[in-house]
Amino acid sequence: MSGREWWRQAVVYQVYVRSFADSDGDGVGDLPGITSRLPYLRDLGVDAVWVTPFYRSPQHDHGYDVADYTDVDPLFGTLADADALVSRAHDLGLKVIVDLVPNHTSHEHAWFQAAMAARPGSPERARYLFRTGRGADAGEPPNNWLSVFGGPAWTRVGDTDQWHLHLFDSTQPDLDWRNPEVAAMFADVLRFWLDRDVDGFRVDVAHGLLKEESLRDQRGQRTEVDHFEMGGLAEDAPMWDQPEVHEVYRQWHRILAEYAGDRMAVAEAWTSTVEANAAYVRPDELHQAFNFDWVLAPWSAPAFAEVIERTLPAMAAVGGTPTWVLSNHDVQRHATRYGGGAVGRARARAATLLSLTLPGSAYLYQGEELGLEDVEVAPEHRQDPSWFRTGQPGRDGCRVPMPWSGDRPPYGFGPGTGQPWIPQPDDWAPLTVAAQEADPASTLAFYRRALALRREWLRDAGDDVTLTVLDDVLTVRRGQVTLAVNCGSRAAPLPAGETLLATGPADGGLPPDTAIWVRTS
Ligand code: NOJ
């Protein structure tokens, strides 16, 4: 891993805009809400904040359906609010990464509106993927692809023979990236936000922009929604990870490089191999890619070790920097994934300490520093488009608004007194930021301490790590720090050295579901 750019060792905190902080009491988070809480993030000790989409949008996929890439949705504020957020973050020493959604627009985007009003074969339609249906009356979709959110990936245009492709919701039509107008539009969008001083972009569905040109049927097609494992992990995936997509990122690399300050982009690219993932961070492409193998790894020392051993050389081979992701707004929170309850929360802390040990960047998701778990959201409150398309619970459980203070909803999330857009549970009073700030044994106190120690002992510790797995205990040595995490069911010996931090009581031995950092000279 070469270079000293800020993002190579950064801890990035993901803010899900709707659910972080609500300044105006409408029950939905917004940009001024985020700005007011930036000192909290500075005190937490992160380096950067990634803000999910806040652009004009009908909100069918909560902002991942963009109607205007260069304006702020009134639900979230104004362009002036976005500028104020960036400027306040910079004053506090925090970088800002915004979300870019290039695979699809909203159906309310001016381009799609124009396309629907235009005739088949027109230049307006050529910005999207309109095709003639199959069957005698063109009543069947043009191919067999399924939407990631369930059901066919095609919607028919009225009663014409034309259909349009949407790998996600029908309100998210896919753009045709083989049309140069599309690349030109996004070059302008990048510059618009770079000129407003953002430090980077998180690139949504980075592996999806180019489809195999023939739009042929998928072989061995899945029949169930596989959400965010996506088709990238399927054996045959003509809609994902096509070689031509890399030319897009070479162009973006050049645009980002025109600006001072090591601007960066991080790819959301679900790929079937780590080598395919590393291709997105070749020296002339994007700067980072989320490591979803880390999300998918079970609670197991050999499994964690295997992902580390696979990731580090693949990234090193391209001069890339690894990333470590345990939670985000699309997957179950890691405390829930590792079993939930006291055990899940203990394991989650331990896995976090492991992530923070490793070379590269760590991406945290809001609320994990409070030990939040997924919430069972009642059907009448579910909003995920995949719920409407499939009847499966979807991703709302990890998107419940943050509890800041107080002993009942909305727990200081906003000035209102009612429940926010997804109701918060009645038993979150002990989990609020205010409650945890008062408790030195809280998860929040642990995160603050871990991030401060990471800066001191690990950020500049180089890329070399030594891994050992013994009886479901993983030991990682990096620089002067040794981490041990016990994924087994019996206490293990403590590593030698002076204790820097433990995720739970660890006197005389390392209990199950616990991790420790010790310092050796
Ligand atoms: C990935 C985003 O993280 C997710 O929330 C969204 O639904 C899809 N991309 C579609 O944009």
Description of the molecule:
The protein is globular and about 75 Å long. It folds into 2 domains: 6-104 and 180-331 and 359-417, TIM Barrel; 110-165, Oligo-1,6-glucosidase, domain 2 (Alpha-Beta Complex). Strands 11-10-9-5-2-1-13-12 form an 8-stranded parallel β-sheet. The protein has a 5-stranded antiparallel β-sheet with strand order 14-15-16-18-17, with helices on one face. The protein has 521 residues and is of the alpha/beta class. It has helices spanning 31-36, 38-44, 79-91, 110-117, 180-195, 245-257, 274-278, 292-296, 301-316, 334-337, 341-357, 385-390, 433-437, 443-458, and strands at residues 11-15, 48-51, 55-56, 68-72, 95-100, 130-132, 154-156, 162-165, 200-203, 264-267, 288-289, 323-325, 361-365, 466-470, 473-478, 481-486, 498-502, 514-519. 1-deoxynojirimycin binds next to loops.
